[in-house]
Amino acid sequence: MTQEEIPACVREYFRVTAQEMNRPGGYLGVCVKKNPVDLFVMQRLIHQTNPERVVETGTKYGGSALAWASVFELMGTEGKVITVDINPLPMPQHGFFQRRVECLVGDSVDHGIVREIAKRVEARRTMVILDSKHKTEHVYQEMCMYAPLVSEGCYMVVEDGIMRRGPYHAIERFLGETSDFVVDGAVEPRFTFNPKGYLRRVTGP
Ligand SMILES: C[S@@+](CC[C@H](N)C(=O)[O-])C[C@H]1O[C@@H](n2cnc3c(N)ncnc32)[C@H](O)[C@@H]1O
Predict the structure, then answer these.
(1) Is the minimum distance from the CB of 134 to ligand 1 under 6 angstroms?
(2) Which of the two residues, 75 and 1, has the higher pLDDT score?
(3) Does ligand 1 lie within 6 Å of residue 94's CB atom?
(4) Sign of CA dihedral 176, 191, 166, 151
(5) Which phi and psi (to 5°) does residue 85 adopt?
(6) Atom 19, ligand 1: which residue's CA is nearest?
(7) Would you say the pTM of this structure is higher than 0.90?
(8) CATH classification of 3-201, choosing from 3.40.640.10, 3.40.50.150, 3.20.20.140, 1.20.1250.20?
(9) Stretch 139-156: mean pLDDT, rounded?
(10) b/e per residue 111-127 (b: at least 16 CB within 10 A)
(11) Which long-range contacts (C-beta less than 8 Å, at least 24 apart) are formed by 20-29?
């Protein structure tokens, strides 16, 4: 469902929940820039598919990286998060964040950054979450560069397709060119910020 198709009352619900998530103290004290329903679905995907690494583009305040790290912590696995942002900000000070999150600074589509991330996830079961610049061309480039890192049965989550002109078009273009990924409508919540954004890898890299 795109922005234009959403009923006014649901738009209001989105506005209020986004506002709530933007308040200081969002998740364990750190702001997370996400629809809480999508946050909930993503923790479920981590739990169900059990990746060893979550790669995230777009760190911002570290709130989402903190959330994925907390899921690994509670699952008791060796899971780690690798997150990249072009604008470094102060990061959460939680002990498990320090242990489980590796922060990189740079452009997510810089070849050197992608090479470095690929080295860090080599031979690891990996999930990818794309949440940096939401322009079509940038997201499309990210999808092409990060798709090879995603393990079979794991997800590449492309955020904020609700904006319609950005990630949504990138997803449509990407899916027109590959059969390695399918949109998993079964996991996508009805009121999501990420329409067609839960892509499951169905054939091995
Ligand atoms: C929506 S915020 C990320 C929110 C975070 N994932 C969360 O859920 O709390 C987007 C972030 O992408 C970063 N960004 C923008 N362009 C980028 C690029 N080319 N490469 C890497 N990060 C970028 C911005 O600096 C910003 O911090």
Answers:
(1) no
(2) 75
(3) no
(4) negative
(5) -145, 145
(6) 107
(7) yes
(8) 3.40.50.150
(9) 98
(10) eebbeebeebbeebbbb
(11) 26/63, 27/63, 27/66, 27/67, 28/66, 28/67, 28/70, 28/92, 28/94, 29/92
pLDDT of residue 173: 96
**Does ligand 1 have an atom closer than 6 angstroms to the CB of 86?**
yes
> For residue 162, how many other CB atoms are within 10 A of its CB?
24
Q: Pocket of ligand 1, candidates 131, 146, 157, 163: which has the most ligand atoms within 8 Å of its Cβ, to mutate? A: 131
Candidates 59, 71, 109: which one to mutate for ligand 1, based on the most atoms within 8 Å of Cβ? Answer: 59
Residues 170-190: pLDDT tens digits?
999 999 999 999 999 999 998
Q: Which residue out of 28, 87, 116 has the highest number of ligand 1 atoms within 8 Å of its CB and is therefore the one to mutate?
A: 87
In ligand 1, the atom with minimum distance to the C-alpha of 39 is 8
Place of tokens 């990746």: 51
- Mapped onto helix, strand or coil, the DSSP state of residue 178 is coil
Check pocket membership of 85 for ligand 1, CB cut-off 6 A: yes
Domain locations along the chain: 3-201
